[in-house]
Amino acid sequence: MSNPRTIAADGTVRELHYAETPRFIQIETNLACNAKCPFCPYAHMDRGPMLMEDWVWQKIVDDTRDLGVTYRPFLINEPLSEKRLPRIVDYIKRDTTAHVEINTNGGLLTEKRARALLDAGIDVVRFSIDGFSRETYEPARPGVDYDKVVEYTNQFIALRDAGGYGCHIEVRMIDMQENKHEQAAFLEYWRARADAAILVPLYQWPWSGQTAPALKPCLKILDEIFFYTDGTAPLCCWDDSGRGLVGDVTRQSVLEIWNGAEMQAMRQLLNRGRRDLITLCSRCDAYKDIRFVGFEEEPASAPQSGAAPDPAR
Ligand code: SF4
User: Fold this and answer.
1) CA atoms in the 13 A half-sphere facing the CB of 57
2) Which of 16, 76, 219, 220 to mutate to test the pocket of ligand 1 (most atoms within 8 A of CB)?
3) Parallel, antiparallel, or unpaired: how do β-strands 232-234 and 245-248 relate?
4) pLDDT in tens, the chain (313 residues)
């Protein structure tokens, strides 16, 4: 949740502040990954195409120029598997109000690629390193070499420092039982090298074991919009299979989607906590521990079927 006005100092949410224009845009420019992480739906997805056409990602950027957007050129993929990434970053950064950031496993960040991304002007790189030893790391990130990731991350930091680039570098570890014993050492090591090192919670993807939704509003969609490789827009980045589509940027502008009837209908339902009436959200318990004050939690009117009516379709 990125809107700082929404969660009060006491941890409660009393108002939902939707941005007038999206502040964050996630673009899935390809559908490749070098890892098969057990907690990620990537290995089971059958969406396509494998590559977003150039004109589609360029249109998304052009539609939102000068709005101060932070672009995230990845979704359910590994951004460094995208050969066009330096060119995409360069294109976005022609807008002086724009920022670009990636979350990456770091396993493909060769020196050549690192230099290209820094030269293109990338603003933030977050390395996901879920262990502080090969034994702990590699079961969490099958397919990625731990020693290589550590080498590439340190190399990227050194290149950034030597070149005087302004890129912010963060290292994060998903907080899991399997790596608890290494967390203190991880934080000590990486805090001495990167700009930040943090632990993050493990998300439970919707439809991955939940039998009912948390009947609460949602903080995920207040200021973010998301695009698949074919240009369609899922409601949420946790939609791995198009259960909740709200638009198509090959036929609409980004702002038409942001302000469109499908998005408005979703917001109205979520504002009332009625996730049960949105197929995607009907098996999502995100933000279940957040205290929403002043939002009626309405009981579902019918038993949950798993195929709740979806106003976007
Ligand atoms: S409630 Fe819906 S929009 Fe919100 S995080 Fe869950 S799946 Fe995404």
Assistant:
1) 25
2) 220
3) antiparallel
4) 445 457 888 888 988 889 999 999 999 999 999 999 888 889 888 898 999 999 999 999 999 999 999 999 999 999 999 999 999 999 999 999 999 999 999 999 999 999 999 999 999 999 999 999 999 999 999 999 999 999 999 999 999 999 999 999 999 999 999 999 999 999 999 999 999 999 999 888 999 889 999 999 999 999 999 999 999 999 999 999 999 999 999 999 999 999 999 999 999 999 999 999 999 999 999 999 899 988 765 454 443 433 333 333 2
Tell the residue nearest (CA) to atom 3 of ligand 1: 236
Distances (CA, A) of 4 to 7, 11, 52, 199: 6, 11, 32, 20
Best residue among 16, 205, 222, 235 to mutate for probing ligand 1's pocket (most ligand atoms within 8 Å of CB) is 235
Look at ligand 1, atom 2, and give the residue with the nearest C-alpha: 281
> What global pTM score does this model have?
0.92
